[in-house]
Amino acid sequence: MPEKTRDELVRIDYTPPRRDWSDPAIDFEARKGTWSYPAAAKNLRYLGFPNPRDWSPTDEDWQLPENWQQVIHDGLAERLTKYRSLKLFLDVCVRCGACADKCHFYLGSGDPKNMPVLRAELLRSVYRNDFTTAGKILGRVAGARKLTPAVLKEWFYYFYQCTECRRCSVFCPYGIDTAEITMLARELLNLVGLNINWVMEPVANCDRTGNHLGIQPHTFKDNIEFLVDELEETTGVRVNPSINRKGAEVLFIVPSADFFAEPGIYTFMGYLLLLHSLGLDYTLSAYASEGGNFGLFTSHDTIKRLNYKIYHEAKRLGVKWILGGECGHMWRVMHQYMDTMNGPADFLEAPVSPFTGTAFTNAASTKMVHICEFTADLIKHGKLNLDPTRNDHLRVTFHDSCNPARAMGILEEPRYVLRSVVNNFFEMPENTIREQTFCCGGGAGLGNDENMEMRLRGGLPRANAVRFVHEKHAVNRLACICAIDRATLSTLMEYWVPEVDVSGVHELVGNALVLEGEKPRTTDLRGKPLAARKGDADA
Amino acid sequence: MRVVWSLLLVGALALVGFFGAQAGGQALFGIVLPYLAMAVFLVGIAVRVVGWARSPVPFRITTTCGQERSLAWIKASPLDNPSTGLGAAARVLLEVLTFRSLFRNNRSELRDGGRFTVSADKWLWAAALAFHYSFLVVFLRHYRFFAEPVPAVVAWIQGLDGFFQVGLPVVYVTDIVLVVALGYLLWRRLADPRLRYISLPADYFPLALLLGIALSGVLLRYVSKADVVAVKELAIGLVSLHPTVPQGIDPLVFAHIFLVSVLLTYFPFSKLVHMAGVFLSPTRNLANDNRMRRHINPWNPPIVGHTYAEWEHEFHDKLVASGIPLDEE
User: Fold this and answer.
1) Greatest pairwise CA separation for chain B in angstroms
2) Which residue among A456, B28, B87, B219 has its CA within the 20 to 30 Å range from the CA of A346?
């Protein structure tokens, strides 16, 4: 937890400094708590990334390669020819300011360079200087800046202070997407060895072991068996998931946090109960044991490299289609990048639910279905025996995770599932949900402890909306469909709204799901006692 | 300071046109510079658009602002989350015609005790729309200078614009709206400390220039009441490629034309290219059909990740010990 108190954190000064923004100066020492530690050299070495070394942002000398300016210049030139998005977004911004108060980091910190317009301007100013006629001739008058060490340091600070949530892009009249700017800026930073460990360690782990957490296959199996045991204790039913089984109909991919730590494990238990009750012929994979993809926070090439194993494993196992668990940035990759990068998946079949016969035509090419789509379809067709009263001890609201909302549009499916499995569901205010949802403040690799002050600041608008429904409707559970959310929102709630716990949607499905041969449930999947029910006293 | 410099610069440019023409530069300001400016504008915009178009769109990165098309019984949002090319085209068209994204604008403010309130904020949307549409109408109205006889549609627009029949000559509504909207857009940049902080000279200058053009036009029509017949002769000469400068043209006309020439020249090198760019924005003009249809990246790099075989090789003993099946089993 940060040294600052809640009262201090909410005293936010939005007055811009007197100094012009084009003047870069970041005192990393004074801003501890708002930046992430650099990547450990071993991770860069393992991945073959440039400039592995031990350094700290508080150092005067960042030990950059001799020709770093040229490297960045050439890297930018290359990306301008490869990405129309980048070129266009750097050219068309009119600085209307509509994006300014849409960024959770700006709202929570008051730092004007967290306004999406200025975050992009940090890169745009260098682009003007190096690549535009006006910038070359007029210099500062045209808003051009030379790429100095101070400017580069500023890039490091602010491009690792954006969670790529795309909220600003919803409001921009030209659809300028700061996530795209940040992604490409981080690619440039990676070229000279400026990256953060909370991103690069998961990337290195994922490449080697198959998942971000570095869980090796035997531990993967142990973890799952532990959860199976727990489930048996709660429900009296023993589920039997298989691992790396060839010939299964479906490969089930989840974010690794779901089989590793609370509260994700309860979501995972929910998946297991659901798939068991259906009798779906599915397998997990210890090799493709990560749905998430921190490559998204590194570079497009890294996305492709880590995502490679999904189709590779599906092909090896000979499954028909892929089912994906609840994870936000994972679904950005699966939805918007996987097929383009690692497709075509012509060895798979267009997904059809074996229980309802529903053809998921929206996934006809990628062959990957979101579990909320899958479950919503099951519930609609009455295939699940649900007892929502088992969630009566919970008063639930739903947090739309950034990527599923703004890079996919899966808004109604989780709501439909939730309304079917809980009796007490309340929406947060409309400007804070669906496409306008506020980020948890810890996505895109920023959910680490050393960055805690900035996480809590960035999460303030979200926490605020939760507090609102907590006070109005006594909400005590924040449901979401993102593994990063489950980790970061838990911390956020503990600080801002401690009365509210966080969970996945399928944990609540697991609570409500009536299984064949189960024992009477007295607790939910967390071992918390259920609400007293009418008639219970008589029994 | 930036705004003062911009206003001064535009003022100076107007004076250059005004006195330059009187000092014998009528052909320069009336013929040569307008032709040059038009050429720079057309070539410049073309270069810009071709430049954007030459960079591919490797990924389909639609920003979805509504429900996806998934299950048949869930109502999808065909405009904010289009699943077809037609839907995406409609999305762009409505973006261009009605500024839908800007219409969403709201204002978040921090209240006591660390609470945020969000309220609708349509002023920017209204002013932007008012400015763009009145500018369009003014632009179309000017067509009467370039065509003889005046096309019926131009006459019709003119009639509608002067609907209130106030003043002599009749006051056009769009003249007032244009100046007021520009004034507001300039004022908000100055009044809001946040906007003042982000504003560059390149933000003030176009506003100042447009105001200069609008005000010189207003002066010409309502105050100096320039000789329309002579101006029309000049305009028709320009478009028919037989340019002449007739006698008796108010020097203010040359100031007006010169400012327009500056605008045309400045346009392709400035943020004003958003006029063309908005059509190409990949977050808006692509359908969110990623999982339905494969999007092709023309430069898709041949990257192979850590293969299963490599992975099995490294963890072979652990796999065997924990009973996880190997590939050959």
Assistant:
1) 100
2) B87
Q: Can you list the alpha helix ranges (DSSP code H) found in B164-286?
A: 173-191, 193-198, 201-218, 228-239, 251-266, 274-277
Which residues are within 8 A (CB) of A316 and not within 5 positions of it... i.e. 6 or more apart? A246, B308, B327
pLDDT the model gives residue B226: 85
DSSP structure class, residue A367: -
**Prior bond of A429 cis (ω within 30°):** no
Give per-residue pLDDT as tens, B168-201.
788 999 999 999 999 999 999 999 999 999 999 9
Residue of B61, B129, B297 to mutate, testing the A interface (most A Cβ within 10 Å of its Cβ): B61
pLDDT, residue A347, reads 98
CATH number at residue B56: 1.20.950.20
Using an 8 Å Cβ cutoff, are A438 and A102 in contact?
Answer: no
Interval B260-265 mean pLDDT: 98
Looking only at the bridges linking them, the beta strands covering B106-111 and B115-120 are: antiparallel
Q: How many domains does chain B have?
A: 1
DSSP classification of residue A423? S
Q: How far apart are CA B297 and CA A345, in angstroms?
A: 15
Please indicate if any CB of chain B lies within 8 Å of the CB of A10: yes
pLDDT at residue A1 greater than cutoff 80: no
Q: DSSP letter string over A271-321?
A: HHHHHHHHT--EEE-SSS-----GGGGT-HHHHHHHHHHHHHHHHHHT-SE
Which residues, other chains included, contact A194 with Cβ-Cβ below 8 Å and sequence gap of 6+? A38, A62, A152, A155, A156
Q: How far is the C-alpha of B6 from the C-alpha of B4, rounded, in Å?
A: 5
Asked if residue B190 belongs to a domain, the reply is yes
Beta carbons of B68 and A362 less than 8 Å apart? yes
Three-state secondary structure call for residue A533? coil
Residue B188's contacts (CB-CB under 8 Å, 6 or more residues apart) are B123, B124, B127, B195
- A511: distance to nearest CA of chain B, Å? 25
Tokens of A65: 């390669």
Closest to B130 measured CA to CA, from B70, B173, B69, B71: B173
Evaluate whether residue B329 is within a structural domain.
no
CB A366 within 8 Å of CB A401: no
Confidence of residue B12 (pLDDT cuts 50, 70, 90): very high
Residue A460 sits at the chain B interface (C-beta within 8 Å)? yes
pLDDT in the model for residue A538:
46
Q: Are A119 and A97 within 8 A, CB to CB?
A: no
Question: What mean pLDDT do residues A66-71 have?
Answer: 98
CB interface of A with B, residues 143-172, below 8 Å: 143, 166, 169-172
Checking if the pLDDT of A291 tops 80, the result is: yes
pLDDT value of position B255: 97
| pLDDT surpassing 80 at residue A2 | no
Distance CA B74, CA B136 (A): 40
Q: Can you read off the two tokens belonging to residue A54?
A: 């031990």
pLDDT value at residue A535:
56
pTM, rounded to two decimals: 0.96
d(CA B178, CA A323): 55
Region A127-141: what's the mean pLDDT? 92
For A83-196, where are the alpha helices, taking DSSP H only? 84-92, 104-109, 116-131, 133-138, 149-159, 167-171, 178-191
**Residue-averaged pLDDT of chain A:** 96
Contact between A355 and A378 (Cβ < 8 Å): yes
What is the helix (H) or strand (E) element at residue A406, kind and residue range?
A: helix A402-406
**Mean local confidence (pLDDT), B254-259:** 97
Cross-chain residue pair B271–A91, CB shorter than 8 Å:
yes
Expressed as residue numbers, the domain containing B179 is 2-322
Task: Give which of A323, A315, A486, A482 is closest to A402, Cα–Cα.
Answer: A482
Q: List phi, psi (to 5°) of B159.
A: -65, -45
Whether residue B27 lies inside any domain: the answer is yes
Residue A313 sits at the chain B interface (C-beta within 8 Å): yes
Is residue B296 included in any domain, yes or no?
yes
**In chain B, whose CA is at the least distance from the CA of A304?**
B303
